[in-house]
Amino acid sequence: MITSILILCCFAFIAGFVDAMVGGGGLVQLPAMFILQPHMGLAQTLATNKTASFAGTSVAAYRYIKRTTIDWSHLTPAIIAAFMGSFSAALLVSYIHKEQFMPFIIVILSLVLLYTIFKKELGLHRVEKSLSKSQHVWYAILTGAILGMYEGLIGPGTGSFLIFAFIVVFGYDFLHASANAKVINLVASAGALFFFIFKGFVVWNIAIPVAACNMIGGYTGSHIAIKKGSAFIRIFFILVVTALILKLSHDYLGWHF
Asked: How far, in Å, CA of 91 to CA of 200, rounded?
């Protein structure tokens, strides 16, 4: 038992590190928790994983807020919309079959990957977009609502989609896109976490050490992202999105063959 928790903590550190920079920490931590803690039920596994990842995301978001410039007037509409979208999606989640959406998600992620690879200057520098104040607000609301609902209904790749949206729609560089995405990720996952805690699904003797390691990973990942800058994050983004595509494709094929 102790050995499996120690191994899980190692995976939690890696997950926090990856997630702090470009999202995708769920690729690492959740499968590890399923494998290393097979005695837990599905709700317990999801709740315990969410508790740990939320802790890591909190640390990363705090680091980004302290060390980068965040335009709260632009971000706030997206935050509110993401929370409402995620909460609304939670009410519908029992009616959704995620595997039906997987081909679409894999195709979209593949297009995001190809666009990032071939547009070599994408996200390396801040680009001023000719958006009016009202356009910026409405685009922020749409971005937050759509990806907040996606987080609540399906989940995989939310952080990566948010980063890409902030770069393409609002002209952010990778560093500031990661910072804004992490804040929205934190808010969007809060509702689900409160639900899990209220229902008593969290296995705290596992969640606490795993959360601590995820927090250390989140701190380390955000520190390196801030230090290395957008060019480094871009490379990491490409690697993680590639891994996400492969993982989702493997899962989808496993469901059907």
From this structure: 19
| Separation between Cα atoms, residue 22 and residue 10, nearest integer Å | 19
| Angle made by CA atoms 206, 223, 127, in degrees to the nearest 5 | 125
**How many Cβ atoms from other residues are within 10 Å of residue 45's Cβ?**
19
173 compared with 149, residue with greater pLDDT: 173
Longest dimension (CA), the chain: 57
Which tokens in the block code for residue 179? 């910072």
Q: Which of 27, 36, 12 has the alpha carbon at shortest distance from 251?
A: 27
HSE at residue 43, side-chain half, CA atoms within 13 A, is 9
Neighbour-count burial for 189-226, b at 16+ CB within 10 Å, e otherwise? bbbbbeebeeeebbbeebbebbbbbbbbbbbbbbebbb
Cα dihedral 50, 48, 248, 163, rounded to 10, equals 20
Distance of alpha carbon 227 from alpha carbon 222, whole angstroms:
8
For the chain, give the percent of residues with pLDDT over 90: 52
d(CA 70, CA 204): 33
| Secondary structure (DSSP) of 3-27 | HHHHHHHHHHHHHHHHHHHHS-THH
Cα separation, 222 vs 19, whole angstroms: 9
**pTM for this entry:** 0.86
Statement: residue 257 has pLDDT above 60? no
Mean pLDDT over residues 86-96, rounded?
A: 72
